[in-house]
Amino acid sequence: MPLPLIEDESQLLAMPEGAYMNEAQLDFFRRRLLAEQAELEAALEETRRTIVDSRGAGDEADLAANEETLRLLLRQADRETRLLRKIVGTLKRLNEGGDVQGYGFCEETGAPIGLRRLLLRPTATLCLEAKQRQEQREHHYARRHSA
C-alpha cells in the first residue's frame, strides 16, 4: 500500500518518529530539492543572460558601476552554482538510499539529521552536533593559522 503524499511541512512534522525517512518523507524532500534545483537553474540562466547583456558603454562612472554590478552578478552565480552542485549531490544521495548513510542521516555519526534541520537545509549531511564540532575545528584551525 503506497504511503500518502506529504503536501506540506506540518504533515511531515506530524509523522511519528518511527516513520523517519520512510518513502513518503524521502519523496517530500526529493520534490523539494527538485523544485529548488529548477529555481536555481532558472536564476543562473537569467544571471548569465544579464552578464552577457551587460556590456556597458558610457563614461568612466557608468563603466565602473557596470563593472561593480558584473562583479556582484559573478559572485551570485558562483554561490548559486555551488548550491546547485550540492543539490545534485544530495539528490543522488537521496536516490541511492538503502543504507544507514542514506539521505537524512549524518555522514559522521550515522544519527538522524532531523526533519526540522532538513527543512531548513535540505542539503545537510551532518547532524547538528557534528556540524557544531566541524565549525569549532574550523574556527580553531583558522585562529591557529592567522596568528
Structure characterization notes:
With 147 residues, this protein is mainly α. 67% of the residues lie in helices and 0% in strands. It has helices at residues 9-13, 23-53, 60-96, 115-120, 128-146. The chain starts with 8 loop residues before the first helix and ends with a helix.
Order of helices and strands: HHHHH
Q: Pairing-aware structural class of the strands and helices?
A: mainly alpha
Strand content: under 5%
Euclidean distance between termini CA atoms: 61 Å
Q: Categorize the overall geometry.
A: flat
Looking at the structure, the CATH topology is Four Helix Bundle (Hemerythrin (Met), subunit A)
From the structure provided, what is the oligomeric state, counting identical versus distinct chains?
single chain
* Total count of helical runs of at least 4 residues: 5
Q: Profile the largest sheet.
A: none
The first-level CATH class name: Mainly Alpha
Q: How many DSSP-defined strands?
A: 0
Segments where pLDDT lies below 50 for 5+ residues? Answer: none
Mean pLDDT: 86
Identify the CATH architecture.
Up-down Bundle
Q: What is the count of distinct domains?
A: 1
Radius of gyration (Å): 20 Å
CATH homology superfamily: DksA, coiled-coil domain
Helix content: 55-70%
Summarize the structure.
With 147 residues, this protein is mainly α. The chain has 5 helices and no strands. The chain has one domain (9-146): DksA, coiled-coil domain (Four Helix Bundle (Hemerythrin (Met), subunit A)), CATH 1.20.120.
